[in-house]
Amino acid sequence: MSKSVEIIDPYFLMEAYAEGYFPMGKQESETEVEWYSAKKRGIMPLEGVHIPRRVLRRIRSKGYYPRINASFSEVIEGCANRESTWINSTIYNSFLHAHMMGFAHSMEVWRDNSLCGGLYGIAYGGAFFAESIFQSEPECMKIALHFCHQHLIERGFTLWDVQFYNPFLGQFGCKEISEKAYQTLLNEAIRLHGCRFGTT
User: Fold this and answer.
1) Which of 88, 113, 132, 143 has the fewest Cβ atoms within 10 angstroms?
2) With a threshold of 0.90, does the pTM exceed it?
3) What is the DSSP letter of 33?
4) CA 12, 198, 108: angle at the middle one, nearest 5?
5) What pLDDT sits at residue 4?
């Protein structure tokens, strides 16, 4: 389904995620969005995420550290800053508004008080729906995944949805599950209370 809007109502956005749908902006339009529900859903199984040791060594050697929601708009801008992007003005404005409402969050990678990479997404109950990721320094997307994984475990989340499987995510344990299996995990996760993405 495709629709031209300037901003998606944040409560409608949350209802859509609760039903297994997510929006993407059309590349040729600044306002039009399309809604998707993948038949094969990509998830990062929280008990099976693998981060290479070299990434952990780089965190220690370079002094990277996590921050949450410190520069949400900059993270979206970093994710959109590529040759081809589905993050149009409607998506940007909608997620910025959802962030101000406390629904959308960013996991950020910092070094020497500078933003080096990060990801953003929607938190609902015990589910985190990751949307996009970027880096301005080598390996920082991997570091963002590591920081996010650790945080979700610590906060009691049970579902880490990444929408689609791709080889980059596959090296960390991402897998595809059926729509039916996904809906079961989703229904269980969004009923959880007390999981707060929060701040650091």
Assistant:
1) 113
2) yes
3) E
4) 95
5) 54
